[in-house]
Amino acid sequence: MDEINCKQLVELVTPYLEDSLDEPTLDLVEEHLVMCDWCVDYVEQMRATIGALAGLPREPVPERLRVAVAAALEERR
Amino acid sequence: MPSASSTTLPDFERLVEQHYGSMKRLARTFVASDAVAEEVVQDTWLAVVTGIDGFEGRSSLTTWVFSILTNKAKTRGVRERRTIPLSCVGASEPDEPAVDPDRFQCDDDAWPGHWATPPRPWQRPERRLLSLEARDHLKAALDDLPERQRVVVTLRDVEGLDADEVCDLLGLSPENQRVLLHRGRARLRAALESYVEGV
Predict the structure, then answer these.
(1) Distance from B48 to chain A by nearest Cα, in Å?
(2) Is the pTM of this model over 0.80?
(3) Residue B149 is part of a domain; what is its CATH number?
(4) Is A35 on the interface with B (CB under 8 A)?
(5) Which site in B25, B60, B113, B129 is 20 to 30 Å from B54, CA atoms measured?
């Protein structure tokens, strides 16, 4: 394979972002990204999605659990 | 992660708050109800507080906590006769493209396989995706993912565990872990895209 198209690129984004592509495939991805702004946008959106997941607000802790953990900690002292 | 000893305990209140939602979500894949999942989370934290002196720091504290959770949830799941073969993904899973194939040019077009309907750039995504509404939208999309994708995305991207840790916890092969993460993230990007374009 001497080049990949956009449809193939979007299936390689996860291993690309994980840095786990073999070198020939990584070259194909990087060569494609140099030429294709749309795929650059796609990769950027994937990064933004991952960033947004890391920033999701946490689910509130039920009072029962809070109390149980505090009691267990108290018992240790 | 701080190393644990009887004199310097980690900030459990913060840890419980940080991980509660993901722990419940993971437990829920092994047991039949939210109520039982909550019990499993509670049992896990009690075991962690009691056993913290035995934590040797060979893994991160987060991974240690999640491995205790997984063991407890599996035990409960077996007792309830509910076992989800989380590792059963692959050949039997229908092929799921990351992007709707209709968005690419077809074989008769000038550039087969290239975008026909390309993604439109998100202006200042770091600001737009932080709005309360965007977060609610993302949270709902995460909850809507197929169970195995949801658990993998939660552990990888919400909790920040690495691929090896997630494979160990869930008994997944590296390839299956990657496929689930890939499909889950692709669905979430698409959900955010429709949100951003609809605002």
Answers:
(1) 10
(2) yes
(3) 1.10.10.10
(4) no
(5) B25
